[in-house]
Amino acid sequence: MPIMPGRFFVRGRPNPRMGPGAPGLPHPRAGSADRRVRLRPPRRSSLGRVWALAACLLLGACFFKLEDVLPADGIGGGAAGDGGDTSANAGGTSGLQTGGSGGGAAGDSNSDTCAGDEVRCGGTCQKKSPQNGCGNPSCTPCGTLPHTTIGCNSEGQCVATGCDSSYADCDGDALGDVGDIAGNGCEYYFGQPSTAPQPPAVLDVPFKPIVVDETGDISDWSGVPLYPFAVVCDNCKDDSLPPVLESGTPPRTDLDAYFRVAWDQTYLYVLLDGYDNSLFSQGSTDGNCAGAACEDGLLVYLDGRDAGGTIGNAKSRVFVGLSERFHAQGGGAPPGSEDVTGIAKLIGNSCYRLETRFRWSYITATNGGDTAEGHFPPKAGQQYGFDVAAEDWDPSLSGVGEEHQSQLFWVDPGKNPSFDFSHLGKMILSGGPDGGTP
Ligand SMILES: [Ca+2]
Ligand SMILES: [Ca+2]
Ligand SMILES: [Ca+2]
Ligand SMILES: [Ca+2]
């Protein structure tokens, strides 16, 4: 099912890694404060204390009582009366009122308690962990889910904090779950990423005719290597877009995306397969945000003659948005609908695929029928400048417009990513009808 422009956005769950009180992060006040401390009874006046002390001395029946301090697991109390280090005012006061009932804490009661980050299980103090229920007195282990990381939050509850590498919770039934963990966990598998160092010096692009159609089927990508988007451009200043809000690598609970690249005689194909906690396809057309440039999707750099330098003829950067719109900068004539195509497919509420193709005659600026020696027509062994990024936009928290949340590249494009093509990666075509020879 194609996604029509501006048809939807899905605001995901709040990022569970954000905020000091977030699940999985130690709460700043956790620790010794985990003991339950009973409220003291109202203190009497000094005169009252004097009378009380005199009375108890006369009667010979003074009981001194420590302040009651009970460990969180309910063990405490102990034999009355042998607490030694009691201050005179507290002991004298409470002795008359409650001494008869006993119940003072033992002087060495600390040996029976556990620290604030511990729980008593099987008679010993253990660090709170999913294995002992995160502090639940029952010590029953937290539940488990497929390919899902379970942790403890500051409230001593089990919580689903993340997914195993290459997996995603696309249907949103797991991440952030607290307490009784249930569901199918991180059910979506992106595939096994290439083990080649990232980014490779030159991306090897296999020959593989791909069908880009409205089924969104990606089984035709079978055998084409999968690569992670893993690089941020911290020093970028993109003149054409609002700055990226997320500094550093976004957590995988915000953006986790992969790509594949293939070619045939007519097109270069790029597939994005990714998790994004807030899907957004409503990029506005205000100002520099030209629709597809300001929504979730792909940004592809195409240096069709491997020339480097600044954006221009046969050097374009093309945004293909989740709305299936596209927007190109640079190059020669603007691309037509036959030059750039993107088909989006939603996976649950938090994942999407974007299957795209770019016509070689557009990439190499030979739409007029020219040839470009060494670059057009495409052949195995030919090299091109290339880069690709996953763009993460979210609806603005103010409710107006959009925010450039995060961005992950294959290769860091350098500090002037809107026009400088001299820091792109390289791709080389392999396979194909000519047997792989240049
Ligand atoms: Ca799930
Ligand atoms: Ca396909
Ligand atoms: Ca996101
Ligand atoms: Ca987004």
Short description:
By secondary structure, the chain is mainly beta. It has helices spanning 46-59, 88-98, 360-363, and strands spanning 9-10, 36-37, 69-70, 118-121, 124-127, 148-152, 158-163, 167-168, 188-189, 202-206, 227-228, 255-263, 267-276, 279-280, 297-303, 315-321, 326-330, 340-347, 351-359, 383-395, 402-409, 425-430. The model is unreliable at 1-111 (pLDDT under 50).
Please, could you describe this protein's structure?
This protein starts with 8 loop residues before the first strand and ends in an 8-residue tail after the last strand. 39% of the residues are buried. The protein has helices at residues 46-59, 88-98, 360-363, and strands at 9-10, 36-37, 69-70, 118-121, 124-127, 148-152, 158-163, 167-168, 188-189, 202-206, 227-228, 255-263, 267-276, 279-280, 297-303, 315-321, 326-330, 340-347, 351-359, 383-395, 402-409, 425-430. The chain is built from three helices and 22 strands. It is elongated, with a radius of gyration of 32 Å. α1 (46-59) crosses α2. By secondary structure, it is mainly beta. It has three domains: 11-26 and 126-189, no CATH class; 36-80 and 88-99, no CATH class; 193-430, Immunoglobulin-like (Sandwich), CATH 2.60.40.1190. Mean pLDDT is 78; it is low at 1-111. 7% of the residues lie in helices and 27% in strands. The strands form seven sheets. Strands 10, 15, 16, 17, 20, 21 and 22 form a seven-stranded mixed sheet that branches. The structure holds calcium ion (4 copies).
